[in-house]
Design goal:
six-stranded antiparallel sheet; 3 helices; 225 residues; seven-stranded antiparallel sheet; alpha+beta; globular; 15 strands
């Protein structure tokens, strides 16, 4: 009897330890995973697709379930409403599920210990807004219901996204699944593609470089004269 109790305690401890290895991320502070690169889709309109389409380092597909238009998901720019959580459009670039059921899948070839993006969803519509970390074969490693575990509330907002992700003890996340609601995923808090804009430090280095090059040219001209 004692032996059985001891084994049960060991099993319970192992389950608790395994559960503690995963965590739901609600901020991108210190985030080490991949970004959602939607550059190339900021062309002023969005495309309907079930995929596969290339989104940065990922292949995006949409499960073949009922949608509003019957055309899957939207990828790009365009007007999209999420009920109480506001409206989206203008310069925002996103992947949006065109229906309250089914999932979108982002599958890659590299493994990470963290993966997450910026999201928003329509509260009260669809099944349940969920995110999940996927293994190399597309199997679910961890899943969270955002409406329960980390609700997003942006009443009357415009292009308002919040970071949600998953962190694990080992680098075994190859992809991400999201859906169960009218749900948007994007790469920044405003949905705007910023990859082509140099950071302030980069601008400073470029200006210094131009200045140094100009000085060298002036010196050469002086010597020649």
């Amino acid at each position: 009897m004692r032996k059985m109790t001891f084994l049960a305690a060991v099993a319970a401890f192992a389950l608790a330890a395994g559960a503690s290895q995963a965590a739901l991320l609600t901020t991108d502070a210190g985030y080490t995973g991949p970004d959602l690169d939607l550059s190339g889709y900021d062309n002023g309109s969005y495309n309907f697709t079930f995929g596969p389409v290339t989104v940065g380092e990922f292949t995006f597909t949409r499960s073949n379930t009922t949608t509003n238009t019957g055309q899957g998901a939207v990828v790009g720019q365009g007007s999209y409403g999420l009920a109480a959580n506001g409206n989206f459009g203008g310069d925002a670039v996103y992947i949006g599920l065109d229906g309250g059921q089914g999932y979108g899948y982002l599958q890659g070839l590299m493994a990470y210990s963290q993966m997450g993006f910026f999201f928003n969803y329509a509260p009260g519509f669809g099944d349940a807004p969920t995110i999940a970390a996927l293994d190399a074969m597309g199997g679910v490693l961890e899943t969270y219901d955002l409406s329960v575990d980390a609700p997003i509330s942006t009443p009357g907002g415009f292009n308002a996204f919040q970071f949600r992700g998953i962190s694990r003890a080992s680098a075994d996340i190859y992809g991400f699944r999201f859906g169960g609601s009218y749900l948007l995923a994007t790469g920044t808090a405003t949905g705007v593609v910023t990859g082509g804009v140099p950071e302030p430090a980069t601008w400073a280095m470029m200006i210094l470089g131009f200045g140094a090059a100009g000085s060298m040219i002036r010196r050469r001209r002086t010597v020649t004269a």
